[in-house]
Amino acid sequence: MGETEDTKAIIQKALEGNQIAFSTLLDTFWNGVYGFQLKRTENENDAEDITIQTFSKAFDKLRTYDPSYGFKTWLITISKNIHVDLIRKRKRNLETGGSQEAVKKVLDDAPSAEDQLINEQNLAKLLLHIKKLKPHYQEIINLRYFKELSYTEIANELNEPVNNVKVKLLRAKKLLAEAIKGEQ
């Protein structure tokens, strides 16, 4: 069962570096991967972490995706491997640093619709919305928008790969934009 033409077109745009295409892939497939991992792990935090890592890895390895398989199937396979690795790591109970491989630039800094919506908000109201997010999303929004750190600086601060930071920020902005829209 291959991929739909729509998804193929979006993946092609993402391969060309289009930020909106990455955002669309994240929005379209997030719930499927997250739901799958929530059933597997029975833990919201683990499911969310694995989903973030899944998209991070998928965006980094997008060139290796074979369209004759469904994109969701490919994401689920990546997420299964990440989950297995997580279990192994926990068994070993070793704390090791993140991989040092060079990470391709996934998203450019062009402001998205979410950015504009966030920027137009009154600061006091915005802070209230941010406080409703999970702590790791609050932290990443704070580092990016209030401390104005670059992706690389945030990655160093959080000791996470740059791609994880980008995916987490994308997700945080989407949740924040949804909260703002929901109130209007």
UniProtKB/TrEMBL annotation:
Keywords from UniProt, A to Z, are:
Sigma factor, Transcription, Transcription regulation
**Membrane among the record's keywords?**
no
Q: Which SUPFAM superfamilies match?
A: Sigma2 domain of RNA polymerase sigma factors (SSF88946), Sigma3 and sigma4 domains of RNA polymerase sigma factors (SSF88659)
The GO molecular function terms of this record are:
DNA binding; sigma factor activity
Q: Tell me where in this chain the RNA polymerase sigma factor 70 region 4 type domain is found.
A: 129-176
Limits of the RNA polymerase sigma-70 region domain: 33-92
Q: Which Gene3D superfamilies match?
A: 1.10.1740.10, Winged helix-like DNA-binding domain superfamily/Winged helix DNA-binding domain
Provide one Gene Ontology biological process annotation: DNA-templated transcription initiation
Task: Please name the PANTHER family in this protein's record.
Answer: RNA POLYMERASE ECF-TYPE SIGMA FACTO (PTHR43133), RNA POLYMERASE SIGMA FACTOR SIGV (PTHR43133:SF60)
The record's comment on protein family reads: Belongs to the sigma-70 factor family. ECF subfamily.
Instruction: Name it.
Output: RNA polymerase sigma-70 factor, ECF subfamily
Task: Tell me which species this is from.
Answer: Pricia antarctica
